[in-house]
Amino acid sequence: MARDTTDHTPLTSVEEMAEYLASGNKPKEAFRIGTEHEKFVFFRADNAPVPYFGEASISALLKGMQQKLGWEPIMDGENIIGLGEPTGMGAISIEPGGQFELSGAPLETIHETCVESNRHLATLREIAEPMGIRFLGIGGSPKWTLAETPRMPKSRYEIMTRYMPKVGSHGLDMMYRTCTIQVNLDFSSEADMRRKMRVGMRLQPLATALFASSPFTEGKPNGLLSWRGEIWRDTDNARAGILPFSLSDDFGFGDYVEWALDVPMYFVVRDGRYHDCTHITFRRFMAGALKGELTEWEPTLGDWTNHLSTLFPDVRLKRFLEMRGADGGPWRRICALPAFWVGLLYDEGALDAADELTREWDFAAVNALRDAVPVQGLKAEIAGRSLFDVARDVVGLSSQGLKARARLNGEGQDESIFLNSLEEVMAKKTTLAEDLLSLYHGRWNGEIDRVFEEFQY
Question: Alpha helices of 14-133 — where are they, by DSSP H?
Answer without folding.
Answer: 14-22, 58-69, 110-128
